[in-house]
Amino acid sequence: MSEILCQWLNQELKVSRTVSPKSFAKAFSSGYLIGEILHKFELQDDFSEFSESRVSSAKLNNFSRLEPTLHLLGVQFDQNVAHSIITEKPGAATKLLYQLYIALQKKKRSGLTGIEMQTMQPLTNLRLQNMKSDNFRERLKNLIPRQTDFNLMRLTYRFQEKHKHMKEDLARVHFEKLERFQKLQEEQRCFNIEKQRISRRRQNEIMAQIQAAIIQIPKPTSNCTLKALEAQKMMKKKKEAEDVANEIKKFEALIKKDLQAKESVSKTSLDTAGQTTTDLLNTYSDDDYIRKIQKRLEEDAFAREQREKRRRRLLMDQLIAHEAQEEAYREEQLINRLMRQSQQERRIAVQLMHVRHEKEVLWQNRIFREKQYEERRLKDFQDALDREAALAKQAKVDFEEQILREKKIREQIAVERAQALYKKHYSICAEIFDQILDLSTKVADYRMLTNNMIPHKLMHDWKELFFNGKPIYEQASIKPLPANPSTEQLIELEKRDLLDRNDYEEYKVHTDKK
Q: Dihedral of the CA atoms 133, 139, 140, 144 (nearest 10)?
């Protein structure tokens, strides 16, 4: 619908300002274009008193003059509708223009002029309409804020927009820092994964080296054949027989030596007895001689006793060895007799002996293997404990380093955020304080010069500059204006344009009132 209305306004009526659906509410907020449309249909005779300004007084003047004409056309229009259009409420201007379009089309089909339509109205209705217009003007005046309030609202809105932009900038900076922090975390995670992968690969290499270094101990070869067993038994028996024969020969030789030694000692003792007796009888008394003989007889008896003990011990050892040899020989003879009974029994006996030998070998191998397994388990357990301790220590160190890095980043972000907030608040307060200080010093200087009298026009200009955030004092000279003006000169040009525009709007308001 807004496109149809725009086409009607731009192509058929050709209003002074091009209207688009996006700027529809703003274009009709002052009421000037509505007056122009009614003027083109010869319904608004006082269109020359309309103002294009957007100040509150101009809008109040325009809509107060539109109200009687719109009621004459039968368009629903009151102070609430006017307030909605002035505040640029979405859809309010479109709805009013659509009703106006329908009413003007009806008027065009009827062929009546504005004067004819007014004359057709009863006199009482005209008086009532005048009262309603006055009432409408008063109510609309209460609804529309004053220009000073509007300027203050505009100044507040400007600072709010500035605060909003600064907040958005801070949010963007915070988002960028958060992205950098997340990127650092992702790089740290990739670094940890790569580190774990490298450590796992090293562990696998160490385990492979350990597996390669294990020495496989070959099992001892077992002579399990019957011939080897018989040969071993025969060799053992021959060796035992030879040992027994050698011991018997040694025993007989020792006995012969003892007999010969006794005979030689008895002969020498008889020869020397005659010589020693005479000497002893001559040199010693009878008591000493008897005591000496007794002592020698005791020594001979002790030596004889010791020799008898050694001989008996040797005989006992030889008898025990001989009995063991006889026992083995008897067992062998018994086995041979038993094995001679039948070939089948002999084969079974061989198999039983073979099984017994295998059982013995298996038992020994099993003990040896269990011992190796136990040593291997203990070694693996100790290696696992050492590895877990090293990994835990490394993980603890990595975690502490990561915590320190994250703590530093968090502290840095907190410091930057506090600095940004301080700069934002300081800049806002400094700007407002500088403007207030400039205005105060300007007023104080002028009152000292003019004896506390400030012209209304000058004070109004200062307020406009203050509300628009422009410096009150002159920043630079613009006479003559160079081709490339500086920033201060551009600010002075904007101040001059602002003051000129306000003067023009005041002039138009004063001319409209006259």
A: 160
**Considering only CA atoms, which of 21, 25, 22 is closest in space to residue 5?**
21
Q: Is 31 helix (H, G, I), strand (E, B) or coil?
A: coil
pLDDT reading at 284 higher than 50: no
Distances in whole angstroms, Cα of residue 422 to Cα of each of 14, 186, 198: 54, 31, 47
Q: What is the DSSP letter of 219?
A: P
Q: Judge whether 200 and 206 are in contact, CB under 8 Å.
A: no
Residue whose tokens read 């949010």: 171
b/e sequence 346-376, b meaning 16+ C-beta within 10 Å: beeeeeeeeeeeeeeeeeeeeeeeeeeeeee
SS3 29: coil
- Is residue 214 scored above 60 in pLDDT? no
The 10s digit of each residue's pLDDT in 29-67 is 888 888 888 888 888 888 888 888 888 788 888 888 888
Query: Within its chain, how far is the Cα of 182 from the centroid?
Result: 7
Q: Residue 501 has what pLDDT? A: 82
**For residue 224, is pLDDT > 60?**
no
Contacts of 241 (CB under 8 A, 6+ apart): 325
Cβ-in-10-Å burial (0-12, 13-18, 19+) of 202 comes to exposed
Tokens at residue 99, please? 């009703």
Stretch 362-372: mean pLDDT = 91
Q: Is the pLDDT of residue 75 over 80?
A: yes
Selection from 145, 57, 153 nearest residue 467 by Cα = 153
Per-residue pLDDT tens for 370-404?
999 999 999 999 998 999 989 999 989 999 999 99
CB atoms within 10 A of CB 81: 20
Q: Are 65 and 53 in contact (CB under 8 A)?
A: no
Structure tokens at 172: 């963007």
Q: For 150, list phi and psi in degrees, rounded to 5.
A: -65, -40
